[in-house]
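Archive maintenance. Older records in this collection stored only the sequence; we are now back-filling the structure field for every entry so that each record is complete. The fields below show one back-filled record exactly as it appears after the update. Entries are processed alphabetically, and SnoaL-like domain-containing protein is next in the queue.

ARCHIVE ENTRY
Title: SnoaL-like domain-containing protein
Organism field: Neocucurbitaria cava
Length field: 139
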Amino acid sequence: MTGGIGKQRLTAFYTHHFIFSNPPDTALSLVSRTVGIDRVIDEFVFSLTHTTHIPWLLPGIPPTNKELAIPFTSIVAMRGDRLCHEHISWDQATVLKQLGLLPEYVEFPFEIEGRGRRRGQVRGSVAGCGRGGEQEVGG
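Back-filled structure field:
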């Protein structure tokens, strides 16, 4: 789903599909902000209880009443005093995992090193919010 081009289409998108379709307990927690000459980049956690249909985030999925905490990135670019574009990204697998719609183990159809020619299940690497610090970095 895309927002639109031009003031009228963007206003309609933000009003009818994006901001005002979110559950009442929706909250944003800023993790970091980078400000440049012509853009602002935010990392934030988008938290909510899935009590309403959210077509831009979960099209076709009815409310589950589950709490979600989703890492997001937003890049807003300006030209002069006007919004040029806004790009918003998130990990949809994290959303589906928190809703219980993505299994922990999935079938893996290729050879797995150390298992000979056996194929099997592998654990998904969906980590969710705040898990990046637990990753070991080699040097």
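Update note: The beta strands are 27-35, 39-49, 67-79, 82-90, 105-108, 120-123. Residues 72 and 93 are 12 Å apart (CA to CA).
Entry marked complete.
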